[in-house]
Specification:
The protein is an alpha/beta fold. It contains 18 helices and 13 strands. It is elongated, with a radius of gyration of 25 Å.
């Protein structure tokens, strides 16, 4: 196992017990690990579900690796009395517990916040669930696409795509990502609060409420309807693809008109102020596209960026790895699992006096059990062997 060490991470010295699976919870604890926390991931004996998520190379899931770099793996049967007791003992030595089971599951295992506070009174315990821990929908089954439908987001997105007659397919799980980010922020705030008060916190994060935070204009327009339609940014065709051009205010509109060689647009009464452009948005987009369609997207981008016009050609995800800006920012790093290397993103921020880079290793299932159990619980080899023979521990 490689030990990364440029500068210590801002959460160095913090230990996290991670009961999470799938995406929202692992996304949160991946961020904690990147910040320098020691994350101990508790998995089922057969491994968490994402260990089998495609793409799988040589028996190892790249998706699992992406979400779980830098975490120690222990595989325990938590449904057994001994397995639950081990997890409770580990919690005694941890600062943070994160779980994203359906409400009630951790209580049945004897590992809910109340149980862990008996052994660690200042624990910061974070529960992530689809609809929150309380309320009439709390026990409803929830995956990100379900929550995104329930939040209103997908219908709002459909309204913004006039060519759609039903909500679009869901492949990017905004609800999971948003909830993971919100949980990371809440845990970080709770850790700071504990340094002031000495008290732990129970944090209840809802995917549904996390989605609501994405919809600023939509929430306010639904309460305060407006007469004129909202102008929506939309792609325009280039000769070989699409480009997004965003003349969001008067200076950028004028810069765009100049860059495109159509200074007459600036004095056109349809476009000479923001309100006029909003009323005549379709006509403006049509004129923009009449210019872009005659050029390749990269040429459009070059001309417009030179003219200080916000724009970007539409890229495939595979192209971003070679983007000069992404390379300059060191936005990706390489991590190694038993099947080889994968690229994973670093955090989208840097600290000048702390290391926030993703760790470069992915633990095989259960690999860290001897190390963690010996170091934290003083468990000897014989005890570990017995637990393995009884299928309590992998």
């Amino acid at each position: 196992m490689k030990i990364e060490n440029v500068k210590p991470g801002p959460l160095k010295g913090i230990r996290v017990l991670d009961f999470t699976t799938m995406m929202a919870g692992p996304y949160c604890t991946r961020q904690l690990a990147d910040m320098g926390a020691e994350v101990i991931k508790i998995e089922r004996i057969e491994g968490e579900q994402n260990r089998h998520a495609v793409p799988v190379r040589g028996g190892n899931s790249a998706v699992y690796g992406h979400l779980n770099v830098g975490k120690h793996s222990i595989a325990i049967d938590l449904k057994t009395k001994d397995g639950s007791a081990i997890a409770l003992d580990l919690a005694r030595h941890c600062d943070v517990v994160v779980e994203n089971s359906r409400p009630g599951v951790m209580a049945r295992l004897g590992l809910d916040c109340a149980a862990i506070r008996e052994v660690r009174s200042d624990i910061i315990y974070c529960s992530i669930s689809g609809f929150g821990q309380t309320g009439p929908s709390a026990l409803n089954a929830a995956f990100a696409p379900v929550v995104q439908a329930a939040s209103g987001y997908e219908i709002e997105n459909m309204k913004q795509q006039p060519e759609l007659t039903k909500p679009g397919h869901v492949g990017v799980f905004f609800a999971d990502v948003m909830a993971g980010v919100q949980a990371f922020g809440a845990i970080s705030a709770a850790l700071f609060s504990r340094t002031q008060s000495g008290q732990g916190q129970y944090i209840d994060v809802s995917l549904l409420e996390s989605m609501i935070w994405l919809m600023v204009y939509e929430l306010q327009i639904s309460q305060n309807p407006v007469d004129s339609p909202r102008g929506l940014y939309q792609p325009v065709r280039a000769a070989d693809g699409f480009i997004m051009v965003a003349p969001g205010n008067q200076p950028t509109f004028e810069a765009m008109a100049n860059a495109m060689g159509h200074q007459e647009w600036i004095k056109d009464p349809r476009f000479n102020d923001h309100s006029s452009r909003s009323r005549n948005y379709s006509e403006m987009i049509g004129l923009i596209e009449s210019w872009t369609i005659t050029r390749n997207a990269s040429v459009c981008e070059e001309i417009l960026l030179k003219g200080k016009v916000p724009c970007a050609r539409y890229r495939e995800v595979s192209e971003i790895f070679d983007d000069p800006q992404i390379i300059h920012r060191a936005a990706f790093t390489k991590a190694t699992d038993p099947s080889g290397e994968i690229k994973v993103p670093n955090q989208p921020f840097t600290f000048d006096n702390s290391n926030t880079q993703a760790r470069d290793w992915v633990d095989p299932l259960g690999k860290s059990a001897p190390q963690v159990l010996k170091n934290l619980l003083n468990m000897d080899d014989d005890k570990i062997k017995i637990l393995r023979e009884n299928k309590i521990l992998l």
